[in-house]
Amino acid sequence: MKKRVKSSLLIFITSMMVLFIAACNDSEELQTVKVGEVTRSIFYAPQYVAITQGFFEEEGLNIELSTVAGGDKTMTALLSGGIDIALVGSETSIYVSAQGANDPIKNFAQLTQTDGTFLVAREEIADFSWDMLEGSTFLGQRKGGMPQMAGEFVLKKHGIDPQADLELIQNIDFANISTAFASGTGDFVQLFEPTASVFEEEGIGHIVASFGTESGHLPYTVFMAKDSFLKEDPETIEKFTRALKKAQDFVYEASVSEVAEAIHPYFEDTEVELIATVVERYREQESFAKDPILDEEEWNNLQDIMDEAGELPKRMDYNELVDTTFAEKVLE
């Protein structure tokens, strides 16, 4: 009897050791890729889905994700080698290129295809119209950033001069905009989710319009890397893009509640039900890109919006800063 127990125990221990060694080997085989996101937002749901659902691991990648607040800081991290891939507005690649970078930044996979902000009013408005912003205090986004440029584009589209027809505040750091509004600054504010919905739930403000539906399709948030990285390690970029496409399919094909549960680990302080509401809102207006390809029409729309805002240093050729090679392979 004792021999059987010892034998069974030995088999169990041996099996556990084999599993442990196998797990270690699997972990060692994964290639770590450092990704820096410009902010943490439900707007980036496919990225978190790709991590939590194991799509990156299926491709042999271990994603080391960090949040680098602000487009300028994100690009600094990318240029200095602090991160391998940046998730940020594609306008930043234009700014860097215009300064004469020796190692150009290439946009290789699109994550979102509309503006992700919403117009939040301090008071509840039953029948909102854009002319209600005239004479108001509008708490906007950082000057030169895509949210602010898209916001100004929409205001002008509705006949409002953001520099003359309202008091435009845009000197508050991105991370402090919501806090400023909550403490009483501004009649209207331009906010990302889930903050906009949280404010609505808490009675701090009320969502009255979507900048995403008003500004049209554009490469709002894109994965980009230095040209040298794409050339030196194309296999990694292709694997990364393939995992992203799996996540994009999941976001549109799974139920809203499944998507919310999948990304909840990245928003632990937000209720799953609220996350689901936000996901549904973004999905309905097709803010999440359905594939990783950044097309030329979107690129031109981006530059038109930048030009309208007076922030376009010079017009950049689509083929110079966009590389769809990897996305096209993934879609084959």
From TrEMBL:
One of its GO terms (cellular component) is periplasmic space. The keyword Mitochondrion does not apply. This is SsuA/THI5-like domain-containing protein. Its main location: periplasm. SUPFAM superfamilies: Periplasmic binding protein-like II (SSF53850). It comes from Ureibacillus sinduriensis BLB-1 = JCM 15800. The keyword Signal applies. Pfam families: NMT1_2 (PF13379). It is found in: Periplasm. PROSITE patterns: PROKAR_LIPOPROTEIN (PS51257). Belongs to the bacterial solute-binding protein SsuA/TauA family. Residues 1-22 form the signal peptide. Keywords: Signal.
